[in-house]
UniProtKB/TrEMBL annotation, chains A, B:
Region (Disordered): 38-65
Record-linked SUPFAM superfamilies: Nucleotide-diphospho-sugar transferases (SSF53448)
Subcellular location: Golgi apparatus membrane
Family to which this protein belongs: In the C-terminal section; belongs to the glycosyltransferase 49 family. In the N-terminal section; belongs to the glycosyltransferase 8 family.
Predominant localisation class: Golgi
Function of the molecule: Bifunctional glycosyltransferase with both alpha-1,3-xylosyltransferase and beta-1,3-glucuronyltransferase activities involved in the maturation of alpha-dystroglycan (DAG1) by glycosylation leading to DAG1 binding to laminin G-like domain-containing extracellular proteins with high affinity and in a phosphorylated-O-mannosyl trisaccharide dependent manner. Elongates the glucuronyl-beta-1,4-xylose-beta disaccharide primer structure by adding repeating units [-3-Xylose-alpha-1,3-GlcA-beta-1-] to produce a heteropolysaccharide. Supports the maturation of DAG1 more effectively than LARGE1.
Keyword list, A-Z: Glycoprotein, Glycosyltransferase, Golgi apparatus, Manganese, Membrane, Metal-binding, Multifunctional enzyme, Signal-anchor, Transferase, Transmembrane, Transmembrane helix
Annotated protein name in UniProt: LARGE xylosyl- and glucuronyltransferase 2 isoform X7
Reactions it catalyzes: 3-O-[beta-D-GlcA-(1->3)-beta-D-Xyl-(1->4)-Rib-ol-P-Rib-ol-P-3-beta-D-GalNAc-(1->3)-beta-D-GlcNAc-(1->4)-(O-6-P-alpha-D-Man)]-Thr-[protein] + UDP-alpha-D-xylose = 3-O-[alpha-D-Xyl-(1->3)-beta-D-GlcA-(1->4)-beta-D-Xyl-(1->4)-Rib-ol-P-Rib-ol-P-3-beta-D-GalNAc-(1->3)-beta-D-GlcNAc-(1->4)-(O-6-P-alpha-D-Man)]-Thr-[protein] + UDP + H(+); 3-O-{beta-D-GlcA-(1->[3)-alpha-D-Xyl-(1->3)-beta-D-GlcA-(1->](n)-4)-beta-D-Xyl-(1->4)-Rib-ol-P-Rib-ol-P-3-beta-D-GalNAc-(1->3)-beta-D-GlcNAc-(1->4)-O-6-P-alpha-D-Man}-L-Thr-[protein] + UDP-alpha-D-xylose = 3-O-{(1->[3)-alpha-D-Xyl-(1->3)-beta-D-GlcA-(1->](n+1)-4)-beta-D-Xyl-(1->4)-Rib-ol-P-Rib-ol-P-3-beta-D-GalNAc-(1->3)-beta-D-GlcNAc-(1->4)-O-6-P-alpha-D-Man}-L-Thr-[protein] + UDP + H(+); 3-O-{(1->[3)-alpha-D-Xyl-(1->3)-beta-D-GlcA-(1->](n)-4)-beta-D-Xyl-(1->4)-Rib-ol-P-Rib-ol-P-3-beta-D-GalNAc-(1->3)-beta-D-GlcNAc-(1->4)-O-6-P-alpha-D-Man}-L-Thr-[protein] + UDP-alpha-D-glucuronate = 3-O-{beta-D-GlcA-(1->[3)-alpha-D-Xyl-(1->3)-beta-D-GlcA-(1->](n)-4)-beta-D-Xyl-(1->4)-Rib-ol-P-Rib-ol-P-3-beta-D-GalNAc-(1->3)-beta-D-GlcNAc-(1->4)-O-6-P-alpha-D-Man}-L-Thr-[protein] + UDP + H(+)
Domain of life where this protein originates: Eukaryota
Recorded name of the encoding gene: LARGE2
Keyword Protein biosynthesis recorded: no
Amino acid sequence: MLPRGRPRALGAAALLLLLLLIGFLLFRGDLDYERPRPRGTAAFDGDPPADPGGRNGSDCTPPRPRPPKCELLQVAIVCAGHNSSRDVITLVKSMLFYRKNPLHLHLVTDAVARNILETLFHTWMVPAVRISFYNADELKPQVSWIPNKHYSGLYGLMKLVLPSALPPDLARVIVLDTDVTFASNIAELWALFAHFSDKQVIGLVENQSDWYLGNLWRNHRPWPALGRGFNTGVILLRLDRLRRAGWEQMWKLTATRELLTLPATSLADQDIFNAIIKEHPWLVRPLPCVWNVQLSDHTLAERCYSEASDLKVIHWNSPKKLRVKNKHVESFRNLYLTFLEYDGNLLRRELFGCPRPPPPGAEQLQRALAQLDEEDACFEFRRQQLTVHRVHITFLPHKPPPPQPHDVTLVAQLSMDRLQMLEALCRHWPGPMSLALYLTDAEAQQFLRFVETSVVLSARQDVAYHVVYREGPLYPINQLRNVALAQALTPYVFLSDIDFLPAYSLYDYLRASIKQLELGSGRKAALVVPAFETLHYRFSFPSSKAELLALLDAGSLHTFRYHEWPRGHAPTDYARWREAQAPYHVQWAADYEPYVVVPRDCPRYDPRFVGFGWNKVAHVVELDAQEYELLVLPEAFIIHLPHAPSLDISRFRSSPTYRDCLQALKDEFHQDLSRHYGAAALKYLTALQQPRGPT
Amino acid sequence: MLPRGRPRALGAAALLLLLLLIGFLLFRGDLDYERPRPRGTAAFDGDPPADPGGRNGSDCTPPRPRPPKCELLQVAIVCAGHNSSRDVITLVKSMLFYRKNPLHLHLVTDAVARNILETLFHTWMVPAVRISFYNADELKPQVSWIPNKHYSGLYGLMKLVLPSALPPDLARVIVLDTDVTFASNIAELWALFAHFSDKQVIGLVENQSDWYLGNLWRNHRPWPALGRGFNTGVILLRLDRLRRAGWEQMWKLTATRELLTLPATSLADQDIFNAIIKEHPWLVRPLPCVWNVQLSDHTLAERCYSEASDLKVIHWNSPKKLRVKNKHVESFRNLYLTFLEYDGNLLRRELFGCPRPPPPGAEQLQRALAQLDEEDACFEFRRQQLTVHRVHITFLPHKPPPPQPHDVTLVAQLSMDRLQMLEALCRHWPGPMSLALYLTDAEAQQFLRFVETSVVLSARQDVAYHVVYREGPLYPINQLRNVALAQALTPYVFLSDIDFLPAYSLYDYLRASIKQLELGSGRKAALVVPAFETLHYRFSFPSSKAELLALLDAGSLHTFRYHEWPRGHAPTDYARWREAQAPYHVQWAADYEPYVVVPRDCPRYDPRFVGFGWNKVAHVVELDAQEYELLVLPEAFIIHLPHAPSLDISRFRSSPTYRDCLQALKDEFHQDLSRHYGAAALKYLTALQQPRGPT
């Protein structure tokens, strides 16, 4: 087909040239002329040669500049909500994997993302990474006037305000969408700043779709753009020059003008960036296409990556994300999955030869670790206690429960082998839950799919899942409990275990009991929920205390651990409970480990207990030492379901060293108790001396 | 102790020197002078500049050559035994992760490593990787005359014979120890061949220890070397030139001469390479230190990597491996663990822009996958059936049982959540076992540690563990069973499940029964081992049939699945078994799924059954269709231990689609059965029509 309307096009081109000339004369004065780049990089008009070896026949090509060793690279990312927070972590993992420079991440976040990412980076402790947060909500008014149809919503527009939102002394920044994955060292991208001519302020990769060419369908009217336009998933910004050029006024003027004829942005900030570039084409520095390989449907990206046989950054810029149709998508997905499932702990490695201040807490931790004796038989226990686990709170979307004075959150922890308990638990407990999950990065993704494919689980927004990443050989049970406890948002918590199913009425009954017993008025009490167990994996759950008692009499149910460890629950006094009509007091006794409801500000669990044994016992000792009343609830019950013994309990049973180490931990716990509570703690030591069974 | 016989040795040395001189004069003419490199790279005497950007003030440095896009790179590795086979896979993963070129791996292996690696690469199906095997045992005579004290043993010397062992048309090869890890693209290493001067034939990195300087302790007499000497963990070999230079005679002469005064090699091939280089220093091309960062104790490697702030290849060249003392070892270990735990499936990605013939079977698989309908409700099932899982047979050291005519191997499969069954199983079954484990790469490492720390498991060399790597959402139960079955080496197999413990006497009893029933003489029979279950997780295992019957009467034991699915085992006829003194025949009936002992050449399991349901039933139908007698053994029994329901059984129970898909699979199974067995298969279809319970 011959191109149509050529004469008209030529006339238009002449007009444009004139306009461009005027535009150029108008703007050039405002741009930054200081610090000219030494090597005449303005000579590169398109992509610099992909091969630094310069196989163009000449033995002497201007070398590609690299950022000096140890130069701090600046990266900005806008991130809001639970799902984007997960995405940004995968992006950061890919960036950290290949990087050899210190990084400063500037995260523009809403409250949810900030809460998640602050905890995550604090516990991640990656050397040579600095994090700054910026409040996206404060920036909203600057962009909320722009109608926007893109799925990223208001946050999609926020890259426009970075020059004013980021610190005024920040001169250059790489801006990334949360849906990009690095396949190379970000320093190579940073080095492209050196190719900017004196006028260029925005480095961008050309769009790899025909969107901005228009006419994709009837009445498809994209925003104006130079040719195919540019994609804003990866941006190099000369903030200093933008500020001096009056960027804020520039983009607002352009957006306002275009919105006179266009109803809204379709691709958020990208439409506005392109409209500006169309007006001021000298502002843009085109970047090699490999720095933003766009995987939307019908993409032209293949031309880019198969010529280069190289990929630097992949951009999942389709609402379909990983389900996008691209004939090589399997390969790209593998690269993405690499980092999705990558053990983030492994990124805690130092940058050699780039001394940087260690992350907060890291020095103290190093000192403590250095004091451990590798020959100590209990070394594994002591190492595990000191381990700082990466924590990703509210891994999945979560709506905090509305504040209610007597509300109670079920608190528990689990690992992968107990996922199948979650649906039943949701059916038995209609209230809020805070669950800590001990997972690898790969398991966290399996967990995500498990929840997404479960009708029961995906319907619940009041269950908060907190992922604690696995590290070390022993299950850090009390650290997990503390994470779940710290994230409970109601005034009361029910400290349960994952293998128990509560009576269907328990949630309502607990709230009524809290109210009736006036716990809210400063009364310090722990409400005991009696525990039972079944040995059958198929079993019909009793709908009332009467039914439970009948099953107990029939031998289908037992009081919890009646056969193996009756001391753990004996003080609950099951005989009395059977007849009780009202809550009754019980006294602490050695090895008592009931399941209790307490105010949220109760003592934390002692993190020294890792693996199997004494982890809950120590917490109940602490409650008693702090003079919590122990009140058994007459209508409350939970039932333990059978499962194979955990690896930890198997090790406890088979290894004398394991038992000796647990004993050492118990001794140290009692020493600390005496130190803290003085003579009042004597009774716990005395109780220890009495003859006793296992544990 | 002083070395004895020094005067004689000195005389011999003088003689050898003379011989060598003659040898040198004879051979130098043979060195390869053709094809001079164009860019005068001989000017580089030490490391080429680490920075191709050439920040040495000049804008024009000779660019570092890169191998042409898509050039096939050649790599040789010597590998023997079970443990080295695991190591080599980690090395290969790191190489594949960064590579952008097709690779040809030349693996010099013993029979064990070949068996493992052939299966692994065959099932891995990595595009653009070709594998050739060379029989290390055939090469042994060429090096076995050299006394060697190094922990790598005879295989440590085998790199010396590569020029003659590898194909005569192979001109260049990178030789790697199994204990190296790549942190960069191997093509960059290959590119260093271009720096070789016309005389250079061996590229090596200088040693990063003082070993060859001598005097590390009294009477420390290392082999001769140039200065610190060179490390042979990473070698660039110009095979063409070496062959022409009479390499074989050269190294044998040098080794013979040195062994006149030195009792043995201490560092295997490395001592001999260094002695040769000391004599003919022009043969060596020194490589940049980053290509072989040596992490032995007291290493000087830090000077290398902190200046370069770059690592290309890490070499764990200490017998202590990961436990080596190096202040940065944690960081290096993280890089190693990255690849140790890396999901090898993700390396199945294509090389863009480098068309290569697909690996064997890959095209057929692609066609089958392309025919699947993504909208089909059973798509997940069909996708899972087609999945080719990577298989690592005999993951841990294993000694095949000595051939015995009536021996029987216990065959089972498991995933991570059943590891705790292994010790008990070993106590109950003293005979050979073949177990398939469905694991991720990371879990395989946890499994390894689990076995290593278990006294019971690490004492057993007759248990073969075969790792089948996880991929896809459904448990490929029958594919796992087939892997374990295919690797059983005795004439009979006991097809069990991991949750069962056999009677202590079962192994002996089965062998006696096989002998007594004359199964060896071509009798086609399946011996049924009756199955029971306990619902208690602590339980005292009956030591005889009498005890078992007492427990059954007391209600502590039940026949297997008596409550949920009695049809599965009803044909075993437990009432008759109770009284039986001799084996008795039973007839097949619908849904019968007994645990049986059969000859090793029995039908395979039908791999279409994935996830929960009908996987064993279909196998017993197949046995019946092939007219196996079903004989119940009167003294045999196994007992199932309780566990939480698997995720698959939970999905089966909660998802109607899951049940529908299983029904579809069953229908297709019966269609295939009719096709294969004709009218004889009619009874299975008829049985299907009868009224029945679930499944």
